[in-house]
Amino acid sequence: MEWFGEHPPTAIVTGGASGIGRAVCELLARDGYRVAVADRDKAGADEVAHQIDGHAFEVDVADEASVVAMFEAALAVFGGTLDALATPAGIADTTPFMDLTVETFRRVNEINVVGTFLCIREAAKRMRSGGRICTVASVAGKRGGGLSGTAAYAASKGGVLALSRSAARALAPQGIAVNCVAPGPTLTPMLDEPFKNPGQRERVEAMTLLGRSGEPREIAEAIVWLLSPRSSFVDGETMTVDGGLMLD
Ligand SMILES: NC(=O)c1ccc[n+]([C@@H]2O[C@H](COP(=O)([O-])OP(=O)(O)OC[C@H]3O[C@@H](n4cnc5c(N)ncnc54)[C@H](O)[C@@H]3O)[C@@H](O)[C@H]2O)c1
Questions:
Q1: Is 3 within a domain?
Q2: Tens-digit pLDDT profile for residues 84-107
Q3: How many angstroms is it from 173 CA to the middle of ligand 1?
Q4: What is the CATH number of the domain that holds 43?
Q5: Where would I find the H helices in 79-150?
Q6: Which of 74, 99, 133, 163 has the greatest number of CB atoms lying within 10 Å of its CB?
Q7: Residue 16 beta carbon below 6 angstroms from any ligand 1 atom
Q8: Residue 153 known to be catalytic
């Protein structure tokens, strides 16, 4: 594959210890990237980093100081260059609307929206022209939930959709592209709890054209393409990867 220059490309993946983020780390390593696996689950990040010959970093994306420290540590390991950032780190919430506390609403949005913002900002400080960023929203952000997540989650993912477009506008003059992937239901630990509810998996999967959930790798392929120079004319885009769920 053609890359930016002489060195192997470098990437930071938040939420890299599990699910979609883990699959992104594996595919980036396959494509020759040096990968920083960043997660609040350090043991999980260590395991993935070991598997792909990458580097593990502990981070809480909702904590500004933790995010800054992680970027500094990763860039030190990378020798000062950063070509790509993916931000799958996130949490779900299934609290019914009328039971939702402000505390829970804030926590979900701090991780999913503020966490994504902090990582984009810190990456953009350190990227050269040609850098590429891919965020992770959800079809819940487009539909207003209605699958597994409820109001706090849907609002946070709507926030990620708008944040990504806004960042694309802001960072284009620096030559940095920002795109977003909005997955449909994907078989990761995030869906373990909701899919325990009788009939829930069947109901959600029947909403897709393909009649099934996605595998983490099927979402990661889109993210990795958007991070690569192969998508060089794509910017400010949201790619929905949902087995046809949004086609109404
Ligand atoms: N699984 C789905 O069906 C689905 C659908 C649409 C969107 N998504 C989104 O995809 C992304 C990845 O989710 P997944 O399904 O792989 O879930 P997952 O639970 O398997 O992985 C999420 C990872 O994020 C990490 N994380 C959570 N909070 C963090 C924090 N504050 N700081 C650092 N790391 C943190 C977790 O430790 C975990 O490793 C999420 O943003 C999720 O909302 C998932």
A1: no
A2: 999 999 999 999 999 999 999 999
A3: 30
A4: 3.40.50.720
A5: 102-109, 115-126, 139-143
A6: 133
A7: no
A8: yes
